[in-house]
Amino acid sequence: MQDRYISLDPALADSSSHMVRKSLYWQRLNEAAGGQAATLVAAQIGVTASVLSYSSLRSSGFRTLPIQTGKVPKYGQVLFAGFLGWNFGSSFVYTLLGDSAQYNYLVGNKSAILSGEKSLN
Questions:
Q1: Same structural domain for residues 106 and 87?
Q2: CB-neighbour burial class of residue 30 (10 A; exposed 0-12, middle 13-18, buried 19+)
Q3: pLDDT of residue 1
Q4: How many CA atoms lie within 13 A of 46 on its CB side?
Q5: What is the pTM of this model?
């Protein structure tokens, strides 16, 4: 099965080219931010931070089940630790593998790139 349908009908040329530009834009933006490595490292560090936070709370008597409203701050603490871990991991890979000049160009010129006024480079 074809991943993307591109019509050869001249009436649909604008929408087809916009669809291709949009797909390429998001692909280049993802690669400029570190690519799939950033996602994998961010997920791994986020889960590790959540597990470490949970084990710290567990040693002080916290139990996840049964779910109770009084435990919401501790649930939030575990989720917040995962969020911070995710951000740290993605930022770490962005500084090592990312291309900040390309990323800033893509973010700053998004509408012009998607409309076809500027190139992706």
A1: no
A2: middle
A3: 43
A4: 16
A5: 0.77
